[in-house]
Amino acid sequence: MPLPADERSPISRNACVDEPDHCETPQKTGPDALAPENRDKCVNEPVSCENPQQTGPNALIHSELRINSYGHYLRRRFGCRVSKVNVDAGFTCPNRDGSKGTGGCIYCNNVSFSPKDTQPLIPLEEQLAAGMAYHRQRLGSEKFIVYFQKYTNTYASVDVLADLYRRALSHPDVIGISVGTRPDALSAEALGLLTEIARTRYVCLELGLQSMDDAILSRINRGHTLAEFMETVQRAAGLGFDICAHLIYGFPGELAEEFLKTAGLIAALPIDSVKLHQLHAVEGTELAEMYRRGEYVPLSLEEYVTTAADFLERLPARVTVQRLYGSSPLAISVAPRWGLKNNQMWFAVINELRRRGTWQGCRVE
Question: Does 247 map to a domain?
């Protein structure tokens, strides 16, 4: 069947668990033609696997998706369909207010992944109610994780954080919180608060690494180093909550073989899940201006899908996968514009694993 015209859902309210609604039948959502014809040069021969889910750590791998998906992890853990609901608690970022830098990361425009009902002027409880109603109707979700997503969600006094987190947790259908932050913005007090909450509720700490290359981190005005990320992961390890690492592939000058080393880094650290997406430029960012000046050449769909599949093959099966792509509203999207819906992006990567006969972790030594 032909690919549809350039359209995608306006903004995913479930911006973290970017899985299709029906994971059991991926072939019905996106044609296998979405998989690229040419595999990456670093993959010599496909690894055959008929039943990757049957033995050892592969018991975590979904037999159709061929990855350890975060959505299925939540269902195994809580026994029901769980959705993440985004909220905007009005935080800023130390890379914007001058304490670490100004201007933010070159790709950052939070409008690109913030649902319209999540604005700091809207009370937290109203944002939560709107998101929960959406997921109940669309997916039949029974329980919810409140995702503090926009900017740096530990960048405030511990009293402010405690009030916000506990207001979110006060709803009877909320089982926990997920807190997005920077590795250089997690105070001992904030870490202690998350540890306390995790004694009785689910907590996921989401740390933005983006790249393990300090030169790239500097060029994108990230404002922290790999060493700071690793130190924060070690501080947060073993405290009773999940740790998620955010990664982006496709920075100017980045080589696939260098990016793939990130899988080894994740394997060596106590990280429970990852989010991966392609670098994409949106209006209102320095990256968009770089694109217009010819200083940023976006990845092709084939390049991204190939490298994402290579990355998954090198990622340990114990690490859950929360995200495999990034999207933005068409009104502000600049490049790349691949013309695929969210489900098609997800299955472009999944179908490449299926085409190869491989699965997450199959190349982990």
Answer: yes
Question: Between 178 and 29, whose confidence is greater?
Answer: 178
Instruction: Pick 30 or 215 by higher pLDDT.
Output: 215
Asked if residues 164 and 148 have their Cβ atoms less than 8 Å apart, the reply is yes
The per-residue pLDDT for 99 is 83
Closest CA to 212 of 267, 250, 265, 255: 265
The pLDDT of residue 320 is above 60: yes
pLDDT, position 104: 83
Overall number of domains in the chain: 1
- Residue 307 belongs to some domain of the structure: yes
User: SS3 for 179?
Assistant: strand
Higher pLDDT, 109 or 336: 336
Q: Is residue 174 part of a domain?
A: yes
φ, ψ for residue 210 (rounded to 5)?
Answer: 75, -50
DSSP state of 224: -
* Structural domain span for residue 192: 31-356
Buried b / exposed e over 48-68, threshold 16 CB at 10 Å, is: ebeebbeeeebebbbeebbbb
Here the CATH number for the domain that contains residue 100 is 3.20.20
